[in-house]
Amino acid sequence: MKGPVNPPHYYRYTVNNFKENEMSTFMAKEGEVTRKWYVLDAAGIPMGRVAAKAAVLLRGKHKTIFTPNVDCGDNVIIINCGKAVLTGKKLEQKYFQRHTGWIGGLKSIQYKTLMATKPEKAMRLAVEGMLPNGKLAAKQALHLHVYAGAEHKNAAQKPEILEV
């Protein structure tokens, strides 16, 4: 071969070739995160819209320090879940289904019944369905506080009211 031989691609970038002023990606740590408290009022608003806003706040995607593998989200209080709306024919056509683990153990509850008896559970299911699956999402879901009425017991934390 004539001329200089080019080194393989994995030798091209060594420690000395990097510039000193290159930027690095910020990765938040668990102890550095400051959590705020937010209140979302679900009265007269579609359930999915409230749940989507709550999921963003729980994950911390609205923050500039968002790191996907760190719980950097805020605490969210959702009030008036009993007054949240389901659009279209979802009250009659949508079902919450769970399985007991036994043969023939599929249990179905119509959303009309679920919203009348346990509106907090319906909202919690909607929010948790918009979080990613895994241990981190289970930890983030602990920061969700859901109430059927307008009263909540987290006033001592001085939550900030957000419009949905």
What does this structure look like?
This protein is α/β, with parallel strands linked by helices. It has one domain: Ribosomal protein L13 (Ribosomal Protein L13p, Chain: A, Alpha-Beta Complex), CATH 3.90.1180. The chain has 5 helices and 6 strands, in the order βαβαββαααββ. The protein has helices at 47-59, 90-93, 111-117, 119-129, 135-141; strands spanning 37-41, 75-79, 95-99, 106-110, 144-146, 160-162. The strands form 2 sheets. The protein has a 4-stranded parallel sheet, covered by helices on one side. Strands 3-4 form a two-stranded antiparallel ribbon. α1 packs across α4 (119-129) and α3 (111-117) packs across α4 (119-129). It is extended, with a radius of gyration of 23 Å.
Q: Find the count of extended strands (DSSP E, 2+ residues).
A: 6
What proportion of the residues form beta strands (DSSP E)?
Answer: 15-25%
CATH architecture: Alpha-Beta Complex
Largest sheet: 4 strands, parallel
Strand order of the largest sheet: 5-2-1-6
Q: Tell the overall outline.
A: extended
Average pLDDT for all residues: 91
Q: What is the CATH topology classification name? A: Ribosomal Protein L13p, Chain: A
> How does the helix and strand content classify structurally?
alpha/beta
What is the overall number of helices?
5
**Element order, helices and strands?**
EHEHEEHHHEE
